[in-house]
Amino acid sequence: MQLATRHRSAVAAVLLACAAVYIAVALSQWLFGVGLDPRDDTLSRAAGIGFTDEARGTLFSFVPVVLPAAAALLAPATRPGRVIGRLTRLVYVLYLVIGVLLAMSAARYGFDDVGQLAEEGQVFIDTRAAVERLLLDAVWLALAVIGLLSTGWSGIRERASQAEGRGDDGDH
């Protein structure tokens, strides 16, 4: 039984590490992915314009949203599992912070038709496309909020059940 708990903790930690890598790579692609195209800056990369426009696809994808939730569900109720639960919430908070910044940067670029026209000679992301991307980004961020709240709720539920268990043991 102890081996199964250690195995579950190890698998949960690997899932959580994979999610953290996805988030870190998306941040790197967004902030440091400089290409040769003069359009390639942080705002255009956030909007998905330029040669290094992978950040949106990396961050707003299935893997970094689901892996922390899977890690929290898989983590045992032991001390390593509680640590994994806390780290899961931290990963979700990082995802949300970076996701909000990325989405707002993309929206800022997309809503600035005049600036795009002046700097690049044409409008690459119009207002309609910027609104659509912002709505889709909001859906991914809402999923991450649901994941964050569900991991927080399961931690509260776990502590309450442990407290009840201690009370039951003392009554018998």
Automatic annotation (TrEMBL):
Q: Where would you find the membrane-spanning parts of this chain?
A: 59-78, 90-111, 138-156
Q: Which UniProt keywords apply?
A: Membrane, Transmembrane, Transmembrane helix
**Superkingdom of the source species:** Bacteria
Q: This protein is called what?
A: Uncharacterized protein
Organism annotation: Glycomyces paridis
